[in-house]
Design goal:
Blueprint: E1 2-11, H1 21-24, H2 28-32, E2 39-47, E3 52-60, E4 63-70, H3 78-81, E5 94-99, H4 100-109, E6 113-118, E7 121-127, H5 132-142, H6 150-175
Parallel strand pairs: 4-6
Antiparallel strand pairs: 1-3, 2-3, 2-4, 2-5, 3-4, 6-7
């Protein structure tokens, strides 16, 4: 499932990056609602004093993905930690607790799939790779690099909003007991 390399993707406080999901989709907090604070675990490293989270992302058969499990569960992220490790596996990776909102933000910034461990399966909660053009278009618009107008911005934001609603529905379905 995973290739012989991994990547570490970082997430700083949302005010540090103009392309953070909370900035490009003003309705992000409203869409995610109470799910925002649901705790998940993943692997990587953190620097709390710098508000930095570095999540290990893995190249899978379907592209770049970040793997998460529900915090408090005793499930391991087996494909990540119990099988053959990539050649650049960092043995100092720790189990990190991140919020559902932060998991979405990480996946948006690095254009990767949000994979949730449930039982013996992984479920794709959100695949932000489908929004590469949106990401680039929004970045160009936000930074003044493009002459596109408000209509294009609205199309990108509306599309992202719908995908986030779908991600929240999927997450709720897969975490219901």
């Amino acid at each position: 499932m995973c290739s012989a390399s991994d990547m570490y993707q970082s997430l700083r406080h949302p005010h540090d990056f103009d392309m953070d999901l909370t900035k490009v989709v003003p309705s992000f907090d409203r869409i995610v609602g109470s799910l925002a604070t649901v705790e998940l675990y993943t692997y990587g490293s953190s620097v709390p004093e710098a508000s930095l989270i570095e999540v290990a992302c893995w190249m899978t058969d379907n592209g770049l993905a970040a793997f998460f499990g529900l915090a408090g569960s005793d499930e391991g992220l087996d494909p990540l930690v119990n099988e053959v490790k990539p050649e650049d596996w960092d043995a100092d990776d720790e189990r990190l607790i991140v919020s559902f909102a932060d998991a979405l933000r990480v996946c948006w910034i690095y254009q990767c799939s949000f994979m949730l461990r449930r039982g013996n399966e992984y479920k794709t909660i959100w695949d932000s790779r489908a929004f590469v053009q949106h990401f680039e278009g929004l970045m160009h618009l936000r930074r003044g690099w493009s002459c596109a107008g408000e209509n294009e911005l609205s199309v990108y934001q509306n599309s992202l909003e719908l995908s986030l609603v779908s991600a929240c529905i999927s997450f709720t379905r897969h975490t219901a007991k």
